[in-house]
Amino acid sequence: MQIMFDGGPKVSIPRKHIQAIEVARLYYEEGRTQADIAAEMGVSRATVSRSLRLAHEIGAVQIRVVDPHSDCSELSEEVKTRFGLQRAIVVPVFEDSPETIKRNIGSVAADYLARIVKPGSVIGVSWGTTIATLVAALRPRKRTGVKIVQLLGADGCSVDPAHINEVARGIAEAFRGDWYLLPAPGVVHDEAIRDALLQEASIEAMLEMCRQADIALVGIGACDSSSGTVHLGYLTPEEIGKMREDGAAGEICYRFYDINGQTLESQLENRVVGITLKDLSSIDTRMGIAGGLGKAEAILGALRGRYVNVLVVDEITARRVIELDDELCIRSDDSDAG
Q1: 253 near 218, Cβ under 8 Å?
Q2: String of b and e for 305-318 (b: at least 16 CB within 10 Å)?
Q3: One domain, residues 81 and 52
Q4: What is the tens place of the pLDDT at every residue in 184-199?
Q5: Is residue 6 pLDDT above 50, yes or no?
Q6: Model pTM score
Q7: What are the tens digits of pLDDT across the range 264-317?
Q8: Statement to judge: residues 80 and 9 lie in one domain
């Protein structure tokens, strides 16, 4: 068969290409089955299958992936590029329910964690309600030799899904891995007790395992009365309010920092039994999961301080983080100009 294009030479199209295009039209445009097409054209199903493959090879069939949440994909790329991250995942918001947003963040984070965990991976974990939703969303899978270690001592006498012991146990169960306790409270009464505990061989061994982790999974806490430090009674609402006035923006593992990511001294700093922000920053993959506008400043500080290099966040909060970053850049430019 030959086709004459306007003013051009005759172009010969192989018969098998014509057949492949017709098969592709029937299959993709009309939704016919391969068996129906084979019967209509008087050929075998194997021939139909080969024709479909050929249609792809000659470019007659082109597949385009359309992201229904393209705004979030573009936002993810902007967050990743702006803050130099390994990965940013912005989760669409379909309803203004904090619990639903939290569950959706946890579900997406669980899928990503499952993709990056390899046989032999060491995962350091903190605690929190958003991390608990990640644990709930994890599906059991086999990863040989995975180790889960707590980045922070355990808090409180009651155990709920957000408790660090439950988080570590749940992730270990999901990956069929081993769970390593940090056998100490997360916060002790004073610095002398903290120092004595740090000299215990078992505690030092676990903290060293934390430092050698391949992946750190951390929550990002706001510097307000919603903070776990207030919930657990380590700080009063008035004390954390004063810290906020003094520039604190957020905390990771009870280590506070300002909106630029600079570490800050707090009443807890020398009483915490757990990883420091400096040690956290040396871990290859530092995955932070958080959501809600109240955490925007805390997330920005964590990004600017490079305490996380993978972020899973909801789209509303992501946009606010970018707005805050822009505002800080403008202030910095104005200051330099002055």
Answers
A1: yes
A2: bebbbbbbbbbbbb
A3: no
A4: 999 999 999 999 999 9
A5: no
A6: 0.79
A7: 988 899 999 999 999 999 999 999 999 999 999 999 999 999 999 999 999 999
A8: no
Model confidence at 4, pLDDT cuts 50, 70, 90, reads very low
Beta bridge partners of 272: 187
Q: Which residue has the tokens 């660090």?
A: 164
* CA dist., res. 245 & res. 44, Å (int): 77
For residue 37, give the CATH number of its domain: 1.10.10.10
Q: How many CB atoms lie within 10 A of CB 225?
A: 15
Range of the structural domain that residue 31 is part of: 2-57
- pLDDT tens digits, residue range 98-121? 999 999 999 999 999 999 999 999
Quote the number of domains for the chain: 2
Terminal C-alpha separation, the chain? 76
**Residue 176 contacts residue 143 (beta carbons within 8 Å):** yes
Alpha helices in the chain (DSSP H): 15-24, 34-41, 45-57, 70-83, 98-116, 129-137, 164-174, 191-198, 201-211, 228-231, 237-245, 277-280, 296-304, 315-337
Spacing of C-alpha 29 from chain mean position: 38
> How much is the CA Rg of the chain, to the nearest whole Å?
27
- CA–CA separation, 23 vs 1, rounded Å? 17
Could you tell me how far CA 85 lies from the centroid of its own chain? 11
129 and 173 share one domain: yes
Q: Are residues 39 and 155 in the same domain?
A: no
**Residue 260 corresponds to which tokens in the numbers above?**
């630029």
The whole-angstrom separation of Cα 102 and Cα 88 is 16
